[in-house]
């Protein structure tokens, strides 16, 4: 068994994880990191349970810097006899969540700048049908020249996993809350996790995701990620059922939703701009500054009382 580049091995708790972007990645990494440090630093179960959450980053957005994790982890041959974990997500839900985060809310700093010229970002003049066209444009782009593997946020889930390997624990993201108990039942040394709650994970705006998931878009995503669906079927994992969306109500609500989205988008793009200047990536910074100014002007024109 050879670990893929994304895998993390936690030697003290003897757990190998294959984190997948947009599949509870942050919560999984942070939870296992906290379990690793807690197991190292405390000998009694009572102390471990009491101190576990102090090793998580504060707030519901749980981000432990990669440098902190790497200080305590190793990927040597020890992982061969480890307890292996992977979390999976319905590909349609994952893709729509990615689109909302990256191109509606601009929530993923640095990642967005290379794609601004493609005009996948939701704009203040967009009607809902325009946004559907933007999603389809992205899907068209992903279908050619191996673009589907350019960014980890839309790379197929099967590409994150160790090839030809059966994981000890495979969970759908909707059952991520049960991971502490699954680990406790699978390893005697981790029995104290039975009393630990899985930290809250970030969830994208489900209302917007539902509005974007037209029948055509869902079909295109399902086709593009056919290997992921084959994997889910082999593991007997559920497929999400498309929600019933009242189109007439959705169309009426869209201007309000769009206003809220763009307000958040401008704030996030401003943060990205600051990061780009900080790293002296001036050409990207200039593009971002123009995009921010353009959206601000459109917002003021469309929503003068904002």
What does this structure look like?
- There is one protein chain.
- With 306 residues, this protein is mostly helical.
- The protein folds into 2 domains: 8-89 and 165-195, no CATH class; 91-154 and 209-302, no CATH class.
- It has helices at 25-41, 45-51, 66-72, 91-104, 128-142, 179-186, 206-212, 215-224, 226-234, 247-278, 282-302; strands at residues 8-10, 15-17, 83-88, 169-172.
- A 4-stranded mixed sheet has the order 1-2-3-4, with helices on one face.
- Strand 1 (8-10) and strand 2 (15-17) form a beta hairpin.
- Helix 4 crosses helix 7 and helix 5 packs parallel to helix 8.
- It is globular.
- Mean pLDDT is 78; it is low at 1-5, 58-62 and 302-306.
Q: What is shown here, in short?
A:
The chain is mostly helical and 306 residues long.
Which SSEs are present, and which pair or pack?
Blueprint: E1 8-10, E2 15-17, H1 25-41, H2 45-51, H3 66-72, E3 83-88, H4 91-104, H5 128-142, E4 169-172, H6 179-186, H7 206-212, H8 215-224, H9 226-234, H10 247-278, H11 282-302
